[in-house]
Design goal:
By secondary structure, the chain is α+β, with helices and mostly antiparallel strands. Helix content is 40%, strand content 16%. The protein has helices at residues 3-16, 31-42, 67-74, 89-94, 104-110, 127-130, 177-180, 185-192, 204-210, 221-238, 266-279, 313-324, 332-351, 362-385, 398-401, and strands at residues 23-24, 46-50, 83-87, 118-121, 135-139, 143-150, 153-165, 171-176, 195-196, 201-202, 219-220, 296-300, 306-310, 405-406. The strands form four sheets. Strands 4, 5, 6, 7, 8, 9 and 10 form a seven-stranded antiparallel β-sheet that branches. Strand 7 and strand 8 form a beta hairpin. The protein is elongated, with a radius of gyration of 29 Å. 32% of the residues are buried.
Length: 408
């Protein structure tokens, strides 16, 4: 095969293989063919990917190595059976490939983009799936999967995504071209309307798991919050007491809506404040305190009549901690109770007044601040309970014990 035949074979296989595959270098037998490929590489018309670059040489997941590195590898006879050629963007343009706006992400691959290039989207791209009963999605704030729901059959996977950040740590949905390519033309156009330009970096653990193939380094603060509560309840059983929290969600088994906002509106933020308070102060089980303290407060009205009313859950917890734990750490009590009170105050603000709904990205930061302080409270409470002798056998996951938690 001469130079042009090799180039045309590479382009044809890339465009017609169905998955934008590379053309195997095992086809090259004659030294003149190898020299022709070297010329094509140096002229920036083809790229070589070998097993030294990627264990899967049959798709271009990343940008190839520098041309001089490719040429050096091509000169090794052993590499000829372990490499694939790919047309460059310039070669594809010269061959007549043009952009197809009806399938923008498939078109990006046809124009030579690597399959693990990602695009960033506003978070509300997910709203269409949250509001459509035909779909559901699951997220751990690092990865996400959208499922297509079927009444009488198992749900099937529809699309995968992750998250990315800009320099201001604003959060965006991120999706690789290889997954965007699988969407229908209508769905690709729908996602394209939410795409944003800028300098974005993948969530560190999304990069670690999806690009490097490694285990995640940390866990989302929402999952850590739920895990802390579950462990506290286990400790309560060891103390011979009723569970402190009535609900018992575990990490990765979240109640609906317990995650980062997908639309920064006052209405969504207020709904989150309500849910968080329901999982925190409202979730406290009053039976936990029975037998340890006075459950009611007594007083007198102006006319001298006696009044008796139950103490609130936050006050009960505050007084129970005061009566059962001693520490020289002056910040301990503040860290423990601040989250309970802050979340309750955030919930009460929208509950006591009618406000117009507004869109403001400041709600993203306010939510992050609120979940951080709530998590600090339950973490400190778990550390407090761990001092009880019988709680020593309760297993705390290493990631939770060390505080390996993402708060963004």
């Amino acid at each position: 095969m001469d130079r042009d035949e090799i180039l045309q074979a590479t382009i044809h296989w890339y465009l017609e293989s169905g998955d934008f595959n590379g053309w195997g270098t095992f086809h090259l037998k004659d030294p003149r063919e190898i020299q022709a490929v070297i010329d094509l590489i140096e002229d920036r018309l083809v790229d070589l990917i070998t097993h030294e670059d990627d264990e899967n040489i049959h798709i271009k997941r990343h940008d190839p190595r520098l041309p001089e590195v490719q040429v050096e590898r091509l000169r090794r006879p052993s590499e000829l059976n372990h490499g694939c050629l790919y047309p460059t963007a310039e070669a594809l343009r010269l061959s007549g490939v043009v952009h197809d706006a009806t399938r923008p992400y498939t078109s990006a691959l046809r124009e030579g983009a690597p399959q693990l290039d990602f695009r960033a989207f506003r978070l509300d791209v997910l709203e269409q799936y949250r509001n459509d009963p035909r779909y559901r999605y699951e997220v751990d704030d690092i990865h996400g999967t959208i499922f297509r729901q079927h009444p009488n059959a198992e749900d099937d996977e529809f699309h995968k995504f992750g998250f990315a950040f800009d320099s201001e740590i604003n959060r965006y949905v991120a999706a690789f071209l290889r997954y965007l390519n699988d969407l229908s033309p209508e769905q690709q156009q729908s996602w394209y309307r939410f795409e944003v330009d800028g300098d974005f970096g993948l969530h560190p653990d999304y990069y670690r798991t999806s690009i490097l193939g490694q285990f995640p380094e940390r866990v989302s603060v929402f999952d850590a919050f739920l895990k802390e509560k579950r462990i506290i309840n286990e400790m309560c059983a060891c103390m011979g007491k009723q569970a402190l929290f009535r609900s018992n969600y575990d990490a990765y088994r979240r109640p609906a809506g317990f995650g980062f906002l997908i639309r920064p509106t006052r209405a969504e933020f207020s709904a989150f404040c309500l849910l968080l308070d329901q999982l925190l102060s409202d979730d406290i089980n009053r039976d936990f305190f029975h037998g340890d303290m006075e459950m009611e407060e007594r007083g007198h009205m102006e006319d001298g009549r006696k009044i008796v009313q139950p103490k609130g859950t936050i006050r009960l917890l505050d007084e129970w901690i005061d009566g059962n734990f001693r520490t020289e750490d002056v910040d301990f009590k503040r860290d423990l109770m601040t989250g309970f009170r802050t979340v309750r105050q955030a919930r009460q603000r929208p509950a006591h007044q009618i406000e117009d709904n507004v869109f403001d990205e400041v709600y993203y930061q306010q939510q992050r601040d609120l979940i951080r302080v709530a998590y600090t409270s339950v973490r400190t409470l778990r550390q407090c309970f761990a001092n009880y002798p019988r709680c020593g056998n309760v297993k705390v996951p290493e990631w939770l014990f060390e505080g390996r938690v993402w708060t963004r």
